[in-house]
Amino acid sequence: MADAGAEDTRRAVDAAHRAFPAWSQKVAGERAAILERVYDGMMEQKEEMARLMTMEQGKPLAEARGEVQYAADFFKWYAEEAKRIYGDTIPASSPDKRIWVLRQPVGVTAAITPWNFPAAMITRKVAPALAAGCTMVIKPAEQTPLTAALLMEIMDQAGVPAGVVNLVTGTRAADIGDALLEDRRVRKITFTGSTEVGKLLMRKAADTVKRVSLELGGHAPFLVFEDADLVKAAKEVLASKFRNAGQTCVCTNRVYVHNSVKGEFAAILAREAEKLQVGEGLKEDVQIGPLIEPEALAKVERHVADAKEKGAKVLTGGRRVTEGGLDQGCFYAPTVLLDTTSDMLVEREETFGPVLPLHGFEEEAEAVALANDTPYGLAAYLYTRDLSRAIRVSEALEYGIVGVNDGMPSTAQAPFGGVKESGLGREGGKYGIEEFLETKYVSVGLK
Ligand code: ADP
User: Fold this and answer.
1) Distance CA 145, CA 365 (A)
2) Does any ligand 1 atom lie closer than 6 A to the CB of residue 112?
3) CA 61 to each of CA 79, 164, 189, 236, 406: distance values in angstroms, whole numbers, following the listed order
4) Where are the domains of the chain?
5) Of 95, 256, 278, 392, which one is least surrounded by beta carbons within 10 A?
6) Distance from the CA of 65 to the center of ligand 1, in angstroms?
7) Ligand 1 near 181 CB (within 6 A)
8) Structure ipTM over 0.95, yes or no
9) Which residues form the Aldehyde dehydrogenase domain (predicted)?
10) Ligand 1: nearest atom to the Cα of 176
């Protein structure tokens, strides 16, 4: 892959700037037809992209296939949504005036994306941007440029005109980022990644007052109440915790379980977690692939060691997996920790690995307070059969996404995003396209 720097980035912005007038002036139906063709192209190359993603990023093939479908769904959704960008007319205060409100594309936009969803984190941004009539420069994570490149090829084949989307790959993230942020022509930055980098980008965006969308870290709590169907709840917890080996920003980070069912629930989770197959993602039966890089493995080991030292019990896992030829990789066994406490790293920082901490509680209000005691506010989950409690608790959780009896809420038509230090703005659904539209007020005198 090319290792681009600031100059290449400026050239990409030049191209996006040149392409903007023609792209934004196309009728919506024409842009929609191109986005539909991108969807079709992704479906045709689904297997190829999934295999490439697994080889590049490590997630099991079944999950990679799932991601390609999820990623493509954004093109389908926004192809349809492109045709529904409505303005307003407002009754004026004088008979010889008219008030029109237009929705127009913000202009040239930039996207900086992470490695954990190498396709979907791009499509969730580029599909609404193109639907709105914006052009875009994309900087994918340095760990996963190949999936991004294949996506670009598919967009090219589908008829997205030259310059409308531009890929800048490279290891000098700050140089590329700075070139995008300093450029006045870039009117919006949309980012998914760490809270730390998100804050930096937001600060830098201030100099040219760019619009900013941020999808940052999370620390998802999962509340399991005493009336929950424990087998079903465990299934959702496992799905939410262990997909992508725990490397998603909406993965469960902390389970709060009522003390009366804690022992039974812990036993189910430990038994099921132990059954998960760890290994190379291309093998069909594998459910947990490697972590992305050695630093990620070191962080998981640090979190588990800290929890053990402070008194948590390891019910299963708690170690690297090296047997069966896996000694060269960053494989970590699915781990369940019992009786974790608020002072442990696993309950404070995003572990981003296959580690499930269980923390008992007595009262609903206590569980909600524990869940909200974090600077993050992306996703939270709860499991209960009590409808009033489900409503009460989902309203009290300070999170952008709440899964009630559902550990996998992400889908193209719903608004995804966080509150507090988990981010700004929403991606997906009718909300996602708003991020790429400006509101223009046209006051017309009939004199
Ligand atoms: P993660 O911890 O998930 O790797 P990062 O926030 O470090 O999250 O990375 C997300 C994206 O942000 C990647 O594309 C990365 O290259 C990019 N990035 C990292 N540092 C900077 C920076 N200083 N300026 C712009 N982009 C950056």
Assistant:
1) 45
2) yes
3) 27, 31, 31, 20, 23
4) 6-216+418-445, 220-404
5) 95
6) 25
7) no
8) yes
9) 2-442
10) 25
Atom 18, ligand 1: residue with shortest CA distance? 173
CB-based burial label for 161 (10 Å; 0-12, 13-18, 19+): middle
pLDDT (tens place) for every residue of the chain, 447 residues total: 999 999 999 999 999 999 999 999 999 999 999 999 999 999 999 999 999 999 999 999 999 999 999 999 999 999 999 999 999 999 999 999 999 999 999 999 999 999 999 999 999 999 999 999 999 999 999 999 999 999 999 999 999 999 999 999 999 999 999 999 999 999 999 999 999 999 999 999 999 999 999 999 999 999 999 999 999 999 999 999 999 999 999 999 999 999 999 999 999 999 999 999 999 999 989 999 999 999 999 999 999 999 999 999 999 999 999 998 999 999 999 999 999 999 999 999 999 999 999 999 999 999 999 999 999 999 999 999 999 999 999 999 999 999 999 999 999 999 999 999 999 999 999 999 999 999 999 999 998
Residue nearest to atom 17 of ligand 1 (CA): 173
Token duo for residue 404:
């009630």
**Which CATH number does 220-404 carry?**
3.40.309.10
298 C-beta closer than 6 A to ligand 1: no
User: Among all residues, which ones are annotated catalytic?
Assistant: 215, 249
CA terminus-to-terminus distance, the chain: 60
Q: By the 8 A CB rule, do 383 and 413 touch?
A: no
- Indicate if ligand 1 lies below 6 Å from the C-beta of 396: no
Compute, in angstroms, the gap from residue 230 CA to the centroid of ligand 1: 38
- The answer, as to whether pTM is greater than 0.95, is yes
Ligand 1 centre to CA of 191 (Å) is: 9
The CATH fold of domain 6-216+418-445:
Aldehyde Dehydrogenase; Chain A, domain 1 (3.40.605)
